[in-house]
Specification:
Arc Repressor Mutant, subunit A; 107 residues; mainly alpha
Length: 107
């Protein structure tokens, strides 16, 4: 079972926020590297640093990328859902600011 995710020693920096935003869009490290004009190694290291900031530890039962996406969305919000053009959900509602929201629990 995963420990509670808590930002530990620091807030994540703007580049980590950018990388995690792209990770939330489902992009691979390679795609993120191309989009940010960095190497895959830089992206791997950035993801690793962000995981440490959120106190996410890698083990054979943990998908760090998934937990990072969830932690990023919870802490910083996420616009990845708004970017999906072919998104269909029976619980879809439009928020006050025009964002797409899945309000499954409100029905």
């Amino acid at each position: 079972m995963v420990e509670r995710i808590v930002i530990t020693s620091r807030e994540i920096n703007p580049f980590e926020i950018l990388v995690l935003g792209l990770l939330c869009e489902g992009k691979t490290n390679s795609a993120i590297a191309r989009e940010t004009a960095h190497t895959e190694k830089v992206i791997e290291n950035t993801i690793g640093r962000a995981a440490k900031a959120f106190n996410i530890k890698s083990d054979r039962d943990t998908n760090v990328r998934v937990l990072l996406a969830l932690a990023h969305r919870a802490h910083h919000g996420d616009t990845a859902l708004d970017r999906l053009t072919d998104f269909t959900c029976s619980h879809l509602e439009i928020g006050d600011e025009g964002q797409k929201l899945c309000n499954r629990d409100s029905h």
